[in-house]
Design a protein that fits this description.
Length: about 600
């Protein structure tokens, strides 16, 4: 007996709420065509060849970099623009001193004027996407409308897009609305607006990274952090990594570092030869959504499906997994080219650039060949160390949370917080030297609480209170640590070798979390003594090791004063528990 043909419902007919919104945006932006993305491989191949024909994507050397392409952004559009990024809540205090704020009505008015008629002659793409495994109760969906096919291709790598997310949206008709247009790519007409109370994002005038791939920083951090607070979970700027010990047990760590401080490298770490039997599995390299579980532990999913990683510095020594991963099916943005059309970047340690990131003949006098914030976009499944549990619907349990910054001095290599509230203070006090990931001067120390300064969608004072509330729900909370791989000696040389050797520090944390491993008790928390770390085969001089683990009371008294001054700006929204923990640290300092 013949079976009835399976009727596939057309995409625009799946969700009334999405269709109505698309129609209202169509009327506002006046595109010449509307394309609903189904997320198929065929669709992405067609979009890619369209961009190749138009010269917007350059195919790279097919022998060494099969199915890889290069995109070049406008030189005025190469990084996130924090000064043009706003959180638009009804009350200014809800956005907090940590965000640029604009009243929602004013922001909508401004954006309406920019979006009005902006897609003339362009195609409007509708990109339904899911952040997190499609079958996970922790995943959340959104729809990005964009006029940039380059953004569509990136979104198809970074998230799960197309029919399945739209079907999930149709079940609840609840989704984050992300409206994006590259506009004129004019920094004078560029804004990234967030409306957490409306679960909406409006981004105009940039086609780059976090400004334009709205699933990432805009949704999965700024909007999700707000949504997480209302729903009782945490959306964090954290990598997630699984460590399997020689005994065969795997434990997971989530770690927050400011942009371009090595999250991707740590998430893909390769154990040093002197630590045989250890294995490392990547769950995520940038964002973690953390949920208190029924068992009193904290469970994590990675909402993303790919990596948008900084390319410069990637080589077989710094990150062999990433180096292998980006040799096929990868979209490069703003790297340089060799004579035979291979991508090239500073720190690659082989090959010679002949064309710079702007497509000009390379001339060292004009600066680096690849832009310092040049990126690769690649599917997480290309990662040789991709965790077999990365797509588990219920997530993975977290044993340790780690905060860190890039600091020449003050913070020792690693320390463990006294308890959850102290850990929240440690996270709130993160400070780091700025990098090329955001426009502005690199190398300046700034406070970057939980590495969320550019990404928290509401007042930090409320956010820390929410952290304390989540902690109170956990009967088996992860231990909280702080690391600093970037301590330097008087000559400015790094004291710690970093990369694979960081596993020694992570292994100590896991032993501490399990109630083992020794430490010295100090005013800032527990710090390992050299004998508490796995140091076999480690080439670090004894004096360097002592310096790395030193807590200097004079520097820390100054640090406490600076932290207090920083926290005071949050006024009455600052939880008293953090002030009390800071006072306790001060009391313990000699
Ligand atoms: C990123 C960033 O791109 O943090 O991940 O800037
Ligand atoms: Mn990031």
């Amino acid at each position: 007996m013949a079976t009835a043909p399976h009727a596939t419902v057309a995409l625009p007919a799946l969700s009334r709420a999405v269709a109505d919104w698309v129609e209202s945006v169509r009327q506002l932006t006046e595109p010449s065509a509307v394309h609903w993305c189904d997320g198929s491989a065929r669709e992405m191949r067609e979009l890619t060849s369209q961009l190749v024909s138009g010269g917007e994507l350059l195919p790279l050397n097919a022998q060494y970099f099969p199915r890889c392409h290069l995109a070049r952004s406008s030189p005025n559009d190469v990084a996130r623009v924090e000064h043009l990024t706003f959180v638009c809540t009804r009350s200014r205090e809800d956005a907090g001193p940590n965000n640029n704020w604009m009243a929602p009505d004013e922001a909508h008015r401004k954006m309406r004027a920019l979006f009005s008629g902006c897609m003339h002659g362009r195609t409007l793409y509708v990109v339904p996407y899911c952040m997190g495994p499609l079958d996970s109760p922790y995943a959340r969906c959104g729809v990005e409308i964009t006029d940039s096919p380059y953004v569509v291709i990136n979104m198809s790598i970074m998230t799960r897009i197309g029919r399945a997310p739209l079907e999930r949206i149709a079940r609840t008709e609840r989704f984050v609305k992300g409206l994006h247009s590259i506009g004129e790519v004019d920094p004078e007409r560029r804004f990234i607006m967030h409306f957490p109370e409306e679960l909406a994002i409006e981004s105009y005038g940039s086609g780059y990274g976090g400004n334009a791939l709205l699933g990432k920083k805009c949704h999965a951090l700024r909007i999700a952090s707000w949504q997480a607070r209302t729903e009782g979970w945490l959306a964090e700027h954290m990598l997630i990594v699984g460590l399997q010990s020689p005994r065969g047990e795997t434990h997971y760590i989530a770690a927050a570092f400011p942009s371009a401080c090595g999250k991707t490298n740590l998430a893909m770490l390769i154990p040093p030869q002197s630590m045989p039997g250890w294995k490392v599995f990547t769950v995520g390299d940038d964002i973690a959504w953390l949920h208190p579980g029924a068992d009193g532990r904290l469970w994590a999913i990675n909402p993303e499906a790919g990596y948008f990683g900084v390319v410069p510095g990637t080589n077989p020594e710094t990150n062999r997994n990433a180096y292998e991963m980006i040799r096929r099916d990868t979209l490069f943005t703003n790297v340089a080219l060799t004579a035979d059309n291979q991508p090239w970047w500073e720190g690659l340690k082989s090959g010679t650039p002949v064309i710079d990131w702007q497509g000009r003949p390379y001339d060292a006098a004009r600066g680096p060949a690849a832009h310092p914030n040049s990126r690769f976009t690649v599917s997480a499944t290309r990662n040789p160390s991709y965790s077999p549990h990365a797509e588990d619907a219920r997530g993975i349990p977290i044993s340790a949370l780690v905060f860190g910054g890039r600091r020449r001095e003050v913070a020792p290599l690693v320390y463990q917080a006294r308890n959850w509230a102290h850990g929240v203070l440690v996270g709130a006090s993160v400070a780091s030297e700025t990098t090329a990931a955001a426009a502005g001067k690199a190398g300046v120390v700034r406070r970057d609480p939980m590495a969320m300064l550019p990404f928290c969608g509401y007042n930090f004072g409320d956010y820390w209170r929410h952290w304390l509330e989540v902690g109170a729900k956990l009967t088996r909370p992860p231990q909280i640590f702080h690391v600093n791989w970037f301590r330097r000696d008087a000559q400015g040389r790094f004291l710690w070798p970093g990369f694979g050797e960081n596993l020694r520090v992570l292994a100590w944390m896991l032993e501490r979390a399990a109630g083992g491993a020794g430490a010295a008790e100090t005013p800032i928390g527990s710090v390992p003594r050299p004998q508490d770390l796995h140091t076999e085969g480690l080439e670090v001089r004894t004096e360097a090791m002592e310096e790395l683990l030193r807590v200097d009371p004079a520097l820390w008294r100054r640090e406490v004063a600076e932290i207090r001054a920083y926290l005071q700006q949050f006024g009455t929204r600052l939880p008293a528990a953090l002030t009390a923990e800071l006072a306790e640290t001060e009391r313990l300092l000699p």
